[in-house]
Structures
1.
Amino acid sequence: MKKIIITFSIVFLFVGTGFAQSNLFGVGWEINIPNNNNFLSKTSYAGGKLEYRHFIKKNLSVGVAVNWAYYDQYLPRQTFQKPDGNGAVTGDFVAQVFQLPLTATVHYYFHPGKTIKPYVGVGLGGQYMGQSLYYNVYVSEDNNWGFVARPELGAIIKPAKFDSWGILLAANYSYSTNKTALINSDSFQNIGFTIGVVFGQ
Amino acid sequence: MKKAWLIVPLLTATLVSCMKSPDTEKLSNSFVVQTSKQPDAEFNSYKTYYISDTIALKTTNPNDTLWVDAGAKQLVDAVKTNMNARGYTFVNSNHSNPDLGLGLTAIKDLNIGVIYPGWWWGYWGGCYWGYCGYPPYYPWYGGGGVIYSVPTGTIILDMIDLKNATANGKLYVPWGAVMSGGLGNTANDLQLGVEAIDQSFTQSPYIQTQ
């Protein structure tokens, strides 16, 4: 895991030193709210984002992004019934989820060249998830890849028009097809908020 | 300005290293109780049952195959109490043609991974319930049952259809419970085991003669 992120960072680093004029690099802190049936509900404050955007027009960019989030929640003793009524499980659990989406992105900007640039965008790609359920003295794990779609709304705010850095504020909705047999779930959804900085155009 | 990029790998490494094992302090040592039933099982078609006073024991020691002490009896009695409360009648011998056979298996010092369709924890060859060559059959496998792994310290309770065994040519298991806990690891494990058996029936209200 660590290696993947470091590799991405190095790629960003090299690409970044060249053409700052039509490129933008972002790094941010992410807060994620799981929106995943009745399983996880606790907000995660342990998340982040690295991204690169290349402007193909003044108001349009394409890029890549890597995000990560870590969820951790205690679920008091309760009975989960299978939806078809043919099974049930009772226990108290600690659920732990690690989420790592790697996406190709496209963003459209409404006021290119202004100090505040609102944008809409979408990221599509693959998402690695590690889902673990701790109970009694055991742990059951389910690690896999799924497809992920992340529509995003945000704004880049620069202190002055030609500054090479700015503040990044964004909100996204994430839907992925990561399955977990642990809770008989075939998708994972969350809402995320990003506060970060950008360098470049 | 260019040095500012150093922040990226630095921040990344910091964030990733913040990840930790979750806090499992809050976890109780009560058993996790999983139950599954055959979707079309008709529990009111059975009236009588038999359960042995001994528990099949699966450990790393090949000679250690039966658990016969007062502790075993306590768990068996918990099954009887629940079955009787649901209207079933205990018969004294498995030669008295009971409709259902109940079997308890305890897994100690041994981890059995994911259970595959057609594979069974209690049937390691030979005859079972007097039926030779009839492998126990779990109709709920492949249908997304809730049982995925059987760690050490687990108690398994199987309900076997003996009434229709000859007709089916198989030992159908219309209902089963897998209870994972600290069997053999905690001082009050037997009490927790009894509570787990009670819970397996509580979450399976369809087990009724009526």
2.
Amino acid sequence: MSKTKCLAMILAGGQGSRLGALTKNIAKPAVPFGGKYRIIDFPLSNCANSGIDKVGVLTQYRPLELHTYLGTGNAWDLDKSTGGVFILPPYARDKGADWYKGTADAIYQNLNFIDMMDPEYVLILSGDHIYTMDYSKMLDVHRANKADATIGVFEVPWDEAPRFGIMNTDSVDGRIIEFEEKPAKPKSNLASMGIYIFNREFLSRYLMADAADENSSHDFGKNIIPAMLNDNARLYSYAFEGYWKDVGTIESLWQANMDLLADEPPFSFNSSWTIYSSNPSLPPHYIGNEARVHNSMLNEGSMIFGEVDHSVLFSGVKIGKGAKVTNSVIMPFTKIEENAVIDHAIVAQNCVISAGAVVTGEAGAIAVVPEGEVVEATDEGEQVS
Amino acid sequence: MSNMMGIIKLDGANSMLKELCEHRPVASLPIAGRYRVIDFAVSNMVNSGIGNVGVLLSANARSIFDHLRSGKDWDLARHRGGLSYLPSDPYDGKPATGDLQGLYSNLDYIQHNAAEYILIAQADCVYNMDFRSVLLFHQNTGADITMVYSKAQDDISGNAAVMKVTDNGRVTDIAKSLTVTAGTNDFLGVYLMSKDTFVKVVSDGFERGGTDFLLDGIIRHMEEYSIFGYEHKGYVSRINSTMAYFNANKDFLNPEIWSEVFMGDNLIHTKTKDAAPVQYKDTSRVVNCLVANGCEIRGEVENSIIFRDVKIGEGVKIKDCIIMERCVIEDNAMLRNVICDKNVTVSKDQWLKGADNYPLIVAKNTTI
């Protein structure tokens, strides 16, 4: 059996509590995005397209829908006899069980899996970001620099830098000199993307040392990277150019969906860098005689009899006659009945917005209807925000 | 464990589908925006619990291999059973001139199968049907052969077989025809019989010089079997002419038919293509259409079926058309009553018009 070059580990265990009602029953990486996808489709498809065919997915919070969705990895061409997708939840041992206590702890608890895969490099990814990236290029740079670790970085506007983990680098070769977590006065505007490539032995050493430290919060950004820097390890940055969005809040999730509706979208779904997903077998959607659809993205299995403008509609959505949907995201199998009004909203899966009901939010305060809800019309119109 | 096995017959040349089926069997014809005609037969079989599906091949079968592949998309990539491809080899040096020879030369495959019953379906029917009801009917009536038909809604031109069926379901006559009048019993190409009966029908027919399963296997031996007719009351369309193809697509612009066939408990499966959701731009104006994923719409489209990955430019006016995969309709082009086969480009400002009762067909890969 040939030695695996690079093993990917996707951290998909988080709740994403800032997504509120949308993650009440499902983990954040399972949240629908872009009319057809789920957030995890992006790192998974990036792995498949980058030639990485061994991917561990670390789950913890409410993983049922995510596990069911991933299946054997077939949809991403990751259903292989040696390799593919491996779902890694926390597990019990002879001396009890431990939940994952932090990003580094999650990887530490799976060192046995990493040993089994026996890779040269370990690529750590989060399951929360929307972007397309060829990880093999980052690996090439890592090897060219003879780095111990390479950290993906992304240029953010200077006034936003205090929100991120900032890497101060040598401008010539990209070597990381300093790492500052959410600095009040940032010395650089290169933010850590939470994408790391480590040499496998090097990573194992630091994870084991960190596990023994009771005072550590077992987090890559807070503990592991600073420890490596402290030892003057060869840490290099890899600058990513392109669209990258953290969709951890209702606002950013809504905005990222709206970004797809620009006349020139930030990345093309129709390029050769396919974003794979697992979807039910539904027919092309039907647009009725009185329907008006503009500036929107629509998926399969939907029936549109009303007005849809500047919105993202998922599969199996029904928009009744006279209904108006604007600036909104309507997730799978939701019914918007006749004359209902939806604006600046995210309506989750399997909801019913009854005839004449009104769900309106505004920029900065997007209305959210959680999974499975039925919203009735009231005399003055139901306001939900 | 299912006690039915399935055989799908790809049919031979059909003169009334000349332009669309010159280089492909009807079974491969793209339909309803994202399917191929064979998807209905395969999906119905799998949804009916049939785990062994043999596809009897005909000429130009490459598109069928490319589409069905291992059968994985229909859950037919199995360790036990699953999808089989049945070539129709020459017999005694002579190539087949009908479907009977192909069935005869594959009798060993059929006999090897443990199923008690065999369901044979022609690959040119568009419908959603659970064949278990046909099996129940077959068992209840004690028939030797059950044939599935529907009552024709309108007059239909094209290859057909009409059946006379008594009130208690007994088939008293079957005749080939080139037209079907409204109200007559139109045979849908679906047969159910025990495997033993099937072997007898095929052997008796072929060994006595027959070439056609229906004609030489069944019609000529009608006296020997009790044949019953099962009426399919749901939507069905047989693709046996260009107009039948055009109308079948248009039928799916009716939300009730669309829902019945595609949105019930049994889904129609097809090869996954990972195309992105449809982008409707600001200048688009779409009414009464079916639009498949991957499309980018900037123009006006009415009463049409738009397949995958089609680009429709600004100022375009499309009405009563079928536009297949990867076509590009450039700015200000106008199309009316046109069927564009795959990968056609209609350049800026070009106008194409077919007749109301006969669409203009643009061949694959053409640039106008």
